[in-house]
Design brief:
The longest helix has 24 residues. The protein has 13 helices and no strands. 61% of the residues lie in helices and 0% in strands. Helix 4 runs antiparallel to helix 5. Among the domains are: 50 residues; 80 residues, no CATH class. It comes from Cephalotus follicularis. This is UBN2 domain-containing protein.
């Protein structure tokens, strides 16, 4: 009697407060609420027929609603088996997940809890994949610096050089800038460069000093290069001579 009165609704405690026999209290409650089965059953059957797995965003929400309806059906005397629960879930998959539904059928689950456990694991894995994709979408990784790479390999190629071509390129570039900068006018003969490679570290650069004392250029009047190797355009030479005057 204490147990029944503890769990009974507050609105019914005062109505059955004078009833001291537990059996009599139970019968009175049964007589009063027995008609609710006729009210709850039609609604529960309608909810069961309209329940679809594809209407829920999460598996836990579907599972909660499913067992809420099943408990009402069982209270009204309806029998719900695991095969009915499995078939209800399989048939209400979304149309785009037909292949996924067939794969779950191939597992031949015997109990509904096995199916719902697999669905929960798959849902958690998909959420992790989506979260990783949102944190770093495809193609968001930093690309290597093409300019830096090209300049690095270009510097290595220029540093290596091959034969006389290196001397010609170096001399051409320095002669082009000759009239603007006196320091860059010093052209180096390729033959002199080859001789310097085989020269002892302590030996003085006599060839270079001799080259610098050859005299003035017949075209621009400056020292350090030959007229026949001079490649600057004539109008630049005229401007340079005018600036000297």
């Amino acid at each position: 009697l204490i147990f029944l009165r503890h769990h009974i609704d507050d609105g019914l405690k005062y109505e059955y407060l004078t009833v001291e026999n537990p059996l009599e209290l139970w019968q009175n409650l049964n007589d009063r609420f027995e008609h609710l089965k006729a009210v709850v059953l039609p609604k529960a059957l309608n909810d069961w027929s309209s329940l679809r797995f594809q209407d829920f965003k999460r598996v836990s929400e579907y599972n909660y609603t499913l067992f809420k309806i099943v408990s009402q059906l069982k209270m009204c005397g309806e029998v719900i088996t695991d095969d009915m629960l499995l078939e209800k879930t399989y048939r209400t998959f979304h149309a785009s997940n037909v292949l996924l539904q067939q794969q779950y059928r191939l597992y031949e689950f015997k109990k509904y809890r096995e199916l719902i456990g697999s669905l929960l694991i798959a849902e958690q894995s998909n959420e992790l994949l989506l979260q990783n994709h949102e944190n770093r979408p495809t193609g968001s990784a930093d690309l290597p610096e093409v300019n830096a790479t090209s300049s690095h390999f270009g510097a290595r190629e220029r540093g290596r050089g091959r034969g006389r071509g290196r001397g010609r390129d170096s001399g051409r570039n320095q002669n082009f800038l000759g009239p603007r900068n006196n320091n860059s006018m010093k052209w180096q003969n390729p033959d002199t460069e080859q001789r310097q490679k085989w020269r002892n570290p302590g030996q003085s650069s006599n060839d270079e000093q001799t080259q610098n004392r050859k005299g003035n250029c017949n075209r621009c009047g400056m020292q350090g290069h030959w007229y026949r190797t001079y490649r600057t355009a004539k109008h630049w030479v005229d401007l340079y001579q005018t600036s000297l005057k």
